[in-house]
Amino acid sequence: MSRLTLETRLRAIGAERYHDRHPFHHMLHGGDCNPDQVRAWVINRWAYQAAIPMKDAAFLSRCDDPDMRRAWRSRIEDHDGGVDEGGGIRRWLKLAEAVGLDPEYVASGGGVLPATRFAVDAYIRYVRDAPLLQAVASSLTELFAPKIHEQRIAGLFKHYDFANPDSMSYFQHRLNEAPKDVAYGLAWVLDHADTPEKEDQAAAALRFKTDVLWAQLDALYSAYVTPGSIPPGAWQPGEGMA
Ligand SMILES: O=C(O)c1cc(C(=O)O)c2c(n1)C(=O)C(=O)c1cc(C(=O)O)[nH]c1-2
């Protein structure tokens, strides 16, 4: 398969399975989430945010090529940042504050849904344990992330009072950060998936990752859109407020 054909195959996986197609995102971006549903999303998405630099550290720990480590480590810097200015993680907590939550509660990881924990943990383990090709390919959902971030910025500004340049700065930054990550990751996968088996493995890794993202929104929808179905131990509206 040519590089172009494999790229087309990977992009088709996103078109079919990326979480921008999930009903919860349609609600969120269309202004149909109530304040508690937005808060539940911010709390649960925190678990994913917090895991990203951990999975990138797991990736670096298995990477024996200094050039690759050098290219990859900016992902951790993007999320953790420096002591004074922080990074994406701190920007996420600004969003938490803007929707009325106590950032310390959100940062504690309390109230996260069981299925969210399982999905996020599966992603860290996958990147730690799978062959390097799959570990890189699993990050390629970021091919589709800038579009969803643009939709989110526009949708949240249009429909919700909490949206302002400060509270939305996480997504604004990602618009600049994700393209460099994905350009590197995609080129690496296209270079290294040089047999039909490896092409299938790269595609399977991307499908796995779309499942990680989809499962998180299924969990949110089930718990906070369907009445009376918040699992034991998960965030209850009113908890963790500023
Ligand atoms: O808001 C989103 O829908 C979304 C999706 C994804 C993704 O596709 O995995 C990431 C992000 N955001 C994101 O902000 C981010 O930093 C990020 C890192 C990664 C990764 O797999 O390394 N995905 C994503």
UniProtKB/TrEMBL annotation:
It holds the Pfam family TENA_THI-4. It is an enzyme of class 1 (oxidoreductase). Gene3D superfamilies: Heme oxygenase-like. One of its GO terms (biological process) is pyrroloquinoline quinone biosynthetic process. Pathway: Cofactor biosynthesis; pyrroloquinoline quinone biosynthesis. Belongs to the PqqC family. This is Pyrroloquinoline-quinone synthase.
